[in-house]
């Protein structure tokens, strides 16, 4: 049976959820999932991981923009730390990435 990269990622996430760990680390786990599925999965995850620590490594701003804290790396160095709104105001690297990936309306929501 052949499954897509996105299907593999969803299966890996489901396996992690079934174990109910105290810490979840998602290292680019949403990259092969389309934007709609990514958003739906993150909404569902929010309910499932309420009492856990969640670390998400991502290149998509949409995947992490609602995080409690975002750490922006640029060429291996910390370029900014804060919420989405704080970084939009204070971190040029983050702002450039955000504007290249999402519309102003999406960024405002």
Description:
The protein is of the alpha+beta class. The chain folds into two domains: 1-57, no CATH class; 59-109, no CATH class. The chain has six helices and four strands, in the order αβαβαββααα. The protein has helices spanning 5-19, 35-48, 61-64, 84-90, 92-101, 104-108, and strands at residues 23-27, 53-57, 70-74, 77-82. The chain has a two-stranded parallel ribbon. It has a two-stranded antiparallel sheet with strand order 3-4. The radius of gyration is 15 Å and the shape is globular.
Q: How are the SSEs placed, and which strands pair?
A:
Blueprint: H1 5-19, E1 23-27, H2 35-48, E2 53-57, H3 61-64, E3 70-74, E4 77-82, H4 84-90, H5 92-101, H6 104-108
Parallel strand pairs: 1-2
Antiparallel strand pairs: 3-4
Helix pairs in contact: 4-5
Would you summarize the structure shown here?
With 109 residues, the protein is an alpha+beta fold. Helices cover 50% and strands 19% of the residues.
């Amino acid at each position: 049976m052949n499954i897509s990269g996105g299907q593999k990622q969803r299966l890996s996430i489901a396996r992690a959820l079934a174990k109910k760990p105290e810490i979840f680390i998602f290292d680019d786990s949403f990259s092969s999932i389309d934007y709609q599925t990514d958003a739906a999965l993150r909404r569902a995850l929010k309910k499932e991981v309420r009492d856990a620590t969640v670390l998400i490594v991502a290149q998509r701003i949409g995947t992490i923009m609602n995080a409690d804290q975002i750490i922006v790396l640029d060429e291996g160095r910390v370029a900014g730390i804060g919420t989405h709104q704080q970084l939009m105001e204070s971190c040029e690297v983050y702002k450039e990435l955000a504007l290249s990936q999402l519309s102003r309306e999406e960024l405002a929501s």
